[in-house]
């Protein structure tokens, strides 16, 4: 069974600070997604990374896929209160029955 | 138009009852899923289904059963509800035949068993 470990589980920082959230696994993933979930809503896809070493940017969010495709990071620059939410990484395994599995999430709270 | 819609959004019911949650997607996707999100917000896959095969997470009790009348629908039936079934259940869909499997989620159904 492939597992995704996210860290930290909780993060509370001041507006304007930078932060990084990590998603690690001992398994190789064919692709990895980052989702954001707000209270009372379903997760919403932010980005998909596919190639080892790939970096994608979404405004103040920078996503990186590890060279070995076992880990990923999400870096937020100058965090805003609107960034508050639950951030989930998810991966699709390389085996036929390895559907999308999720990490346990990082709950981010940005203080104004 | 809502891409993935679930009904009801809230469901309160007594132990022992049988209930269903409906899910519909208008994205033309071939694969649909049911996830359970526990109180700690951990999303755990229950089922994945396309029009060819059903893959069941072996930890899911057989009181839970997916029913798919057509490609756009995947309903979740739960028999003999238990207190521990209380959670938020999410339906999702994804395209197949593409390199990346990205899931599109419904808004969730908060099930409370009393």
Topology:
The complex is a heterodimer of chains A (112) and B (114).
Chain A: E1 5-7, E2 10-14, E3 19-24, E4 31-37, E5 44-49, E6 55-58, E7 61-65, E8 71-76, E9 85-92, E10 101-102, E11 106-111
Parallel strand pairs in A: 2-11
Antiparallel strand pairs in A: 1-3, 3-8, 4-5, 4-9, 6-7, 7-8, 9-10, 9-11
Chain B: E1 4-7, E2 10-13, E3 19-25, E4 31-37, E5 43-50, E6 54-56, E7 64-67, E8 75-78, E9 87-94, E10 104-105, E11 109-113
Largest sheet of chain A: 6 strands, mixed
What can be said about the biggest beta sheet of chain B? 7 strands, mixed
List low-pLDDT spans of chain A: none
State the total count of DSSP E strands of chain A: 11
Q: In terms of structural class, how would the helical and strand content of chain B be classed?
A: mainly beta
Which oligomeric form is depicted?
heterodimer
Which two chains touch over the largest interface? A-B, 25 and 24 residues
Q: Please state the CA-atom Rg of chain B, rounded to the nearest Å.
A: 13 Å
Helix content of chain B: under 10%
Overview of this protein structure:
The complex is a heterodimer of chains A (112) and B (114). With 112 residues, chain A is mainly β. Chain A is built from no helices and 11 strands. Chain A has strands at residues 5-7, 10-14, 19-24, 31-37, 44-49, 55-58, 61-65, 71-76, 85-92, 101-102, 106-111. In chain A, a hairpin with a 5-residue loop joins strand 7 and strand 8 (71-76). The relative contact order of chain A is 0.33. Chain B is mainly beta. Helix content of chain B is 0%, strand content 49%. The mean pLDDT of chain B is 89. The chains are: A mainly beta (112), B mainly beta (114). The A-B interface holds A 30-31, 33, 35, 37, 40-45, 48, 50, 86, 88, 90, 92, 97, 99-102, 104-105, 107 and B 4, 33, 35, 40-45, 48, 55, 90, 92, 94, 99-108.
């Amino acid at each position: 069974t492939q597992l995704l470990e996210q860290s930290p589980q909780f993060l509370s920082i001041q507006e304007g600070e930078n932060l990084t959230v990590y998603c690690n696994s001992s398994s190789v993933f064919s692709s990895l997604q980052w989702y954001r979930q707000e209270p009372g809503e379903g997760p919403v896809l932010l980005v998909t990374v596919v190639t080892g070493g790939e970096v994608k940017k979404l405004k103040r969010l920078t996503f990186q896929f590890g060279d070995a495709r076992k880990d990923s990071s999400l870096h937020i620059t100058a965090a805003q209160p609107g960034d508050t939410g639950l951030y989930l990484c998810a991966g699709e395994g390389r085996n036929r029955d390895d559907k999308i599995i999720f990490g346990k999430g990082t709950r981010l709270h940005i203080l104004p | 138009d809502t891409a993935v819609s679930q009904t009801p959004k809230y469901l309160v019911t007594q132990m022992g009852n049988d209930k269903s949650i409906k899910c519909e997607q208008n994205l033309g996707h071939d694969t649909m899923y049911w996830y359970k999100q526990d109180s700690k917000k951990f999303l755990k896959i229950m089922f994945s289904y396309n029009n060819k095969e059903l893959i069941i997470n072996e930890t899911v009790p057989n009181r839970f059963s997916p029913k798919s009348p057509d490609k756009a629908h995947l309903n979740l039936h739960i028999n003999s509800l238990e207190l521990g079934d209380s959670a938020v259940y999410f339906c999702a869909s994804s395209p197949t035949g593409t390199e990346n499997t990205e899931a599109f989620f419904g808004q969730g159904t908060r099930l409370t068993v009393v």
